[in-house]
Amino acid sequence: MEEASVEQPIKEQCENQPQIKRPQLHETAERGDVEAVKRLLATSSVKINSTTKQGETALLLASWKGHEAVVRLLIEAHASINLKDKDGLTPLYWASFKGHVAIVRLLIQWKADVNACDKKGFSPVLVASQKGHESVVELLIGAGANIHLGTSESGDVPLGIAAHNGHAQTVDRLLQAKANVNCRNKKGISPLYAASQEGHMDIVEILIEAGAKIYLATESGDVPLGIAAERGHLSVVKRLLQANAKVNSQNKAGATPLYLASLKGHVATVRLLIMMKAHVNICNKVFPMIIVKDFVTCTMSRGVIVQCMLPARKATQI
């Protein structure tokens, strides 16, 4: 099965790396020491836009740490709003990543670039969506953030990442802003597929009501019903079937939802699929001579599932 996974932004990867010695302004800004920052700004020797070896400005560090008063001081002292560090991160990106609403609002007021991406293609609205910072997402959308920008490697967009991570309110807000409910990343994974995989029933409901296509398949031919069955998310399986998902759909390997649920030992899901007329005799292309029931028979600790399948198997042989 194709597995939806969320690519990690650069900031997530480097956040806990040890820091080398930095200029005094940077140290005080990161600590949030307002009075010390004021004293330093009053001296002629301080270069407000100087950077560390990583390319970090004092404004960037204060924005990351959530020190609104320091951010305001630096901006009023003409700190450059959109300077990026070596990874392409801006003050707005960091504030959005951390969910610092007041700082995001302040940076936007001072004309921060709401669509400035890091080197991996992560935008402020994307990282805010990933973290579920709905208020930040709201501010960014209001300031003209492009909610369709995807990451460079995987093509993940804000709606897909929010759906994967279970942020229902963020999903709802993105849909209100006309996010494409049927967008797919470079692996063909849709928001509905990602939510179905993770068992986020509330988001599955939101997406279906918004017109999500339940048949959209990944590059491996996997559909939301298949991944939900494989993970044993019974309520999601029920909802997808109610939305007329094909109970006998097959991926490129020939695996059906029933096959996948059986493989993982999800008894309740198997019962439901059989009740909904799932065929137990469909062959898997990987093992063309093995039907679902016979595969399960060969799998240890699956006796209950075999008992579920036998009546259905006999019915198809009459």
Here the CATH topology of one domain equals Serine Threonine Protein Phosphatase 5, Tetratricopeptide repeat
**Can you tell me the CATH superfamily of one domain?**
Ankyrin repeat-containing domain
Instruction: Give the overall silhouette.
Output: elongated
Order of helical and strand elements: HHHHHHHHHHHHHHHHHHH
Q: Which architecture name of one domain does CATH use? A: Alpha Horseshoe
The radius of gyration over CA amounts to 25 Å
Structural write-up:
By secondary structure, this protein is mainly alpha-helical. The protein has a domain at 212-318: Alpha Horseshoe (Serine Threonine Protein Phosphatase 5, Tetratricopeptide repeat), CATH 1.25.40. It has 19 helices and no strands. Helix 12 packs antiparallel against helix 13 (201-209). The chain is elongated and about 80 Å long. The two termini are 33 Å apart. Mean pLDDT is 89; it is low at 298-302.
What are the defining features of this structure?
318 residues; Ankyrin_rpt-contain_sf; ANK repeat; single chain; mainly alpha; elongated; Serine Threonine Protein Phosphatase 5, Tetratricopeptide repeat; Ankyrin repeat domain-containing protein 17; repeat
Quick rundown:
It is built from 19 helices and no strands. With 318 residues, it is mainly α.
Topology of this protein?
Blueprint: H1 10-14, H2 24-31, H3 34-41, H4 58-65, H5 68-76, H6 91-98, H7 101-109, H8 124-131, H9 134-142, H10 158-165, H11 168-176, H12 191-198, H13 201-209, H14 224-231, H15 234-242, H16 257-264, H17 267-275, H18 292-297, H19 303-317
